[in-house]
Amino acid sequence: MSKFVTNQNIEIDLELASLGERILAFFIDAIIISFILIAFSIAIANVNLESWMLIIMVIPFMFYSFLFEYLGNGQSLGKRAMNIKVVKLDGTTPTVGSYLLRWLFRLIDIYVLYGGVSVISIIVTENGQRIGDLAAGTIVIKVASVDVGNVLKSPAQPNHVVTFPIVKQLNDKQIELMKKALEMRKQGFNKEGVSSLAEKLKEKFQIETELPDVKFLYTIIADYEHIANQEF
Predict the structure, then answer these.
(1) Backbone angles phi and psi of 20, in degrees to 5
(2) Domain locations in the chain?
(3) What's the pTM value of the predicted model, to 2 decimals?
(4) In this structure, what is the dihedral angle of CA atoms 116, 121, 122, 123, given to the nearest 10 degrees?
(5) Mean pLDDT of the region 16-44
């Protein structure tokens, strides 16, 4: 488990994918692409096509990694099979530019020295990053499913009773930060970040409560949104 700091200066825990998991994900993707290309070749074997038409039809396969990671929220089919995904260093979803950078550097990372550059880079860098990850500011993490228990699913309820009136002193940006932290917690890689955020709130507003950290933050959000709706 490695620690990272978000733009909001919140410390989060992310479990990095192992080298073996990443290699297996790569080979699964390679096998999938190979089968698709074989099927594609058989399908057009008896069709007269110009060379430029073939090139155009093959282009999507060249963009396989980029397209699947972008459309699959950081997961190609191989990464999904291995339960790993690409995220930014702060745990957020990469931009289209980040995915594109990772893809562009595959030529150096994976195809030079038959992947040797990529393997060495992942081993020697602190966060297990290949060159494409370093350029794009991304890492590859394990994805864990987390049961957050019987916490509030929908913060704003018409019959909600405010537990912490002090939330009037918060603002929309702070509430949004809590929502992002909880969403990351649901994905399984921000347990300590949520606890840290909850402790900071309790300390700042001198709140004493027996509520678990996750439910405490959901209650804060629900209180804030209820009060905001009442004032509106």
Answers:
(1) -60, -40
(2) 2-142, 165-231
(3) 0.63
(4) 90
(5) 90
